[in-house]
Amino acid sequence: MSQVDTYLKAAERDTTRRSYASALRHFEVEWKGFLPATQEAVARYLADYAASLSMNTLQHRLAALSHWHTAHGFPDPTKSSMVRQVMRGIRTLHPAQEKRAKPLQLDVLQRIDSWLQTAAETGQAQGDRAAILRHTRDRALVLLGFWRGFRSDELVRLRIEHIDVAHGEGLTCFVPRSKGDRNAEGRTFRCPALSRMCPVSAYESWLTTSGLTDGPVFRAIDRWGTIASGGLAAASIIPLLRRLFAAVGVTDVEDYSSHSLRRGFAGWANASGWDIKELMEYVGWRDIKSAIRYLDVSPEGLKERFERGLPRVPEGAREEPATSGKPQSKVIRFPTK
């Protein structure tokens, strides 16, 4: 491999490279398409899968095809007016509401934290090294993931040599590369030490228990308590979290994903009075649209906002139900003189 090829490869994220390769295999192997492709072929491909694949998946397939043609010096058929029109028609005929992961609520986080501490203590009493390591690792992963608003790819990229801890104050971690870091400049994140459910003390406990001094923070652990040399795969975070949700009695575990950590933190920060600028700076969002996607307005919060904007009932007036049945609205009656 030449130096140019080395740098070209380094310019792409591994996950992007793998996902593009998978998309191209689908086009060539599953659909029996040919590369380079014509605009007509791309349009037929989209039409054939319009009803079965989500709009996000179709857009990703187009991105992969576009990247292949550009990289190999061919005209890009995905930019043609025909393909754009087909995509517009698919949006019209197959509208779909984006499915978002449920946010991890603070009470569930508390239950998970308590369960993991108890499970680690049980493992200690039974001399089960694997259980001690696994539960201590999971506690650090969940608390750090929640309070830092990390995605799964950021969690698995954390390295011990990139994290500095000020005991009782907080930690600073450097992430060399992440999804939003388009220029691969790396980002530095800070996280405070907390009086409860503390991510800093959980991280310190994991290092002390595991004996790790460098390399990936979060790693696989086999049933004999052997810690892997490499880091966890990003795809392993979702099943790990769902097992924890199930362990504390959450029933709809399939509605949660690794995004639940970030969505949960964003919702907590919003409810705690953070403004959008503070939240964006802390999490690392540069686009306000990205931040808004993670925020939900609860029905209770929505009702409170409306009630604050309603006119006050005049002093001396009284409210009575409009009907004797189930009250749907109220009638305000004023005292007669």
TrEMBL record:
Gene Ontology MF term list: DNA binding
Disordered: region residues: 308-337
Annotated SUPFAM superfamilies: DNA breaking-rejoining enzymes, lambda integrase-like, N-terminal domain
Sequence ranges of Basic and acidic residues compositional bias: 308-321
Top-level lineage group: Bacteria
Glycosyltransferase is among the record's keywords: no
Start and end residues of each Tyr recombinase domain: 99-307
Any Gene Ontology biological process: DNA integration
Domain Core-binding (CB): 1-73
CDD domains: INT_Cre_C (cd00799)
Keyword set, alphabetical order: DNA integration, DNA recombination, DNA-binding
InterPro entries noted in UniProt: CB, DNA_brk_join_enz, Integrase-like_cat_sf, Integrase_catalytic, Integrase_recombinase_N, Phage_Integrase-like_Recomb
PANTHER family: P CELL-TYPE AGGLUTINATION PROTEIN MAP4-LIKE-RELATED, PHAGE_INTEGRASE DOMAIN-CONTAINING PROTEIN
Protein name: Phage integrase
